[in-house]
Amino acid sequence: MYSEPIKIAVLAMGGEGGGVLADWIVDLGEENGWFAQTTSVPGVAQRTGATIYYVELFPGADQPDARVPVLAQSPMPGDVDIVLASELMEAGRAVQRGFVTPDRTTLIGSTHRVYAIAEKSHLGDGRVDSNALQRQIRRAARRLITFDMARTAERNGSVVSAVLFGALSGAGVLPFNRAQFEATIERGGVGVKASLAAFADAFEQARLTQSESSRPTVRAREGGRPAADAKPALPDPAAVAPRHPEVARLVEHARGYPAEIQPIVIEGIRRCVDYQDPAYGRLYLDRLDAQRAAPGGQDAEMMREVARHLALWMTYEDTIRVADLKIRGSRFERVRGEVRSTDGQVLSISEYMHPRIEEICETLPAGLGRWLSRPHAVHRLVARLTRDGRVVTTSSLGGFFLLYALAWWGRWRRVTLRYAVETARIEAWLGRLRAAAAIDPRLALEAAKCQTLVRGYSDTHERGLRNYEIIMTVLDRHAKALAPAILRELRNAALADEHGRVLRDALARRGFPLDGLFAGAERSCP
């Protein structure tokens, strides 16, 4: 006989069915003679915070003259029996909040990651180490059941909530049998077939722990998949066979590079051709060949970094690129797949677009763009008209053709102001690398990696470019006396804070004059 309620916390993000899962648990209890209560505390947004659903179950509701118990409305640290987490970071948050304790808590969660806003917006690699998260939750829980629930849900055409419900049943931590769990899903009446399939799949995966008592973590049956943070492999150069004759010649030229660099060079060609045309891919190789012939060009690590960062810089994000990506058929198919749209449903896709006056100027031919960028009546008028942005429905004929026209302008990208500006920046960067390599190849390697600061678009691009220009000014002024480790320190400082505060502190600590550096960077950013 239970003297205390069973206390269950569900941590789920928006759209994952956390509320449905909590309602299923309540219905499961009430239909089988238990008192049940659920409450929820909503998070801030889809990925900046999850909703916490709290359920308490207490027996005796089917007993004559049973007294209704007083149940708690929120989970308390150290006082939770079962935690259900829809994603690995949410499991980590549950541990951080103290909901998971080694003396009582069963933690059931998914090992897949949906990266947080702070992780995705970080200038460098801001991802939390998934392996470290798993080690932490393994130490914190009395019993741990984890596997890739997102993949299980996708395989069965369902959502994570049904998978969590199946894992909860398979874990055997509630006094209800499988048939009672499945009857709960059937009473819901919505998506029953897919939910039952996902439930059964998860039930079997959770049951694996019954015969693996020394290994409480359940591993997905697919076995051998890469870790959550593993990067996708680049294509095998031997398997690349372009149909376009000019692209085929470019790929054949790339095979002259060392084997460890070939995949990156071929990927760089692919990106540049997709971004513009085969001639742009040829320009990428010409620049790379010139760098290879310069001092330090025979160093494999140096050329690998140059090949990677040059491709990224040459395929910079501009308004033309954004428009092109948003109207591609593959994107419409991907969105349809994500929302599970069927042929009989109408799908509407709305894009919030807010190009600044700077982006508009950069999209125009160079001369016209420079004229519009200067302060005068037309500049002020355009800035005022574009101040609030607009919503473009790309699934409508008008919205699609608006972006189609902008993407079509890409064939004349080479005459735009942005192309002229980025070309000058790329050539200046490559020149710096050659000059630095003549002094110290290790310094040139660190300078090559500084390109990672130049990324994104709008304000993010502007701030990253400013920090990059500051570091390049230091390199220009102190190349002969600058240690590679100092340049690496400055780059890491710039990646730590997009507003430049950490970089300022690092510069001051090293004795570099701040006013002159920041003023110089402002002048070098057109």
Topology (elements, then pairings):
Blueprint: E1 6-12, H1 18-31, E2 34-41, E3 51-59, E4 82-85, H2 88-96, E5 106-110, H3 117-121, H4 130-140, E6 143-147, H5 149-155, H6 160-171, H7 178-188, H8 192-207, H9 245-254, H10 262-275, H11 278-293, H12 300-314, H13 319-326, H14 329-339, E7 350-353, H15 357-363, H16 366-373, H17 377-385, E8 390-393, H18 397-408, H19 417-439, H20 441-449, H21 458-478, H22 484-496, H23 501-509, H24 514-524
Parallel strand pairs: 1-4, 4-5, 5-6
Antiparallel strand pairs: 1-3, 2-3, 7-8
Helix pairs in contact: 1-6, 1-7, 2-4, 5-6, 6-8, 7-8, 9-10, 9-11, 10-11, 10-12, 11-12, 12-20, 13-18, 15-16, 16-19, 19-20, 20-22, 21-22, 21-24, 22-23
CATH superfamily of the domain at 6-214: Pyruvate-ferredoxin oxidoreductase, PFOR, domain III
Question: Residue-averaged pLDDT, rounded?
Answer: 85
What structural class should be given to the helix and strand makeup? Answer: alpha/beta
The CATH C-level class name of the domain at 6-214: Alpha Beta
Distance between the termini: 75 Å
Kindly state the percentage of residues in helix.
40-55%
- Major sheet: 6 strands, mixed
Task: Report the oligomer.
Answer: single chain
Stretches where pLDDT is under 50 for at least 5 consecutive residues are 210-230, 522-526
The total of helices stands at 24
Compute the CA-based radius of gyration.
28 Å
* Number of strand elements: 8
- The strand line-up of the biggest sheet is 2-3-1-4-5-6
- CATH topology description of the domain at 6-214: Pyruvate-ferredoxin Oxidoreductase, domain 3
Strand content bin: 5-15%
What is the approximate shape?
elongated
CATH architecture of the domain at 6-214: 3-Layer(aba) Sandwich
